[in-house]
Amino acid sequence: MSAEQVLFEIKLMQAEAEAASGRCTNIVESANQPDLVVNGAAAQAYVRMAAIAKTCQHPQQAEQLLQKAAASKNSADSAWVAKAEKLLGTYDASQQQQKLKALADAERSTDTSAYTGWWWYSIGTIQAALHRPDQAKEAFHKALLLPDSLMSHHFSRVAMADSE
């Protein structure tokens, strides 16, 4: 994880707080940041930026951000892709098999990757996309118990807060 990615996440959190409090001046301009991709996954940031844009009365920008999120092919993005598709009205429940494959891939990665926390976070997001909230919560908790990798602790907390 680069310093730029951490800085982007801090700016995104600030933008979310400002939008929630009604201060919407220039807070969504970071949407074109190339450094928002973490381990190949960017849909989470796009969905969160879309929520900010919607809150700040920028529906066209919100839709564009959701389309970017929905276009991701990264298995770690599957839950966020599903959320973007639902918000766009394009969700296709028949893609369950793809999510199951992504889940199996992520579970295999927990045994071989140095980024075990990241993969447990990814498993949690996939479980959430499969509508398995208990398994998702369990995976997020596992991510929190492991050493932080690629901001897996932070992203797990964001995902758990989003599911409440």
Describe the secondary-structure layout.
Layout lengths: L2 H18 L22 H13 L3 H12 L7 H11 L7 H17 L3 H14 L3 H13 L6 H12 L1
Helix pairs in contact: 1-2, 2-3, 3-4, 4-6, 5-6, 6-7, 6-8, 7-8
Strand content: under 5%
- How can the largest sheet be summarized? none
Structural class: mainly alpha
Large-scale geometry: globular
Q: What Rg do the Cα atoms give?
A: 15 Å
How many domains in all?
2
Q: Count of DSSP E strands?
A: 0
**How far from one another are the termini?**
27 Å
Residue share in helices?
55-70%
The helix tally amounts to 8
Low-pLDDT parts are: none
Q: Return the average pLDDT rounded to an integer.
A: 82
Helices and strands, in order, run as HHHHHHHH
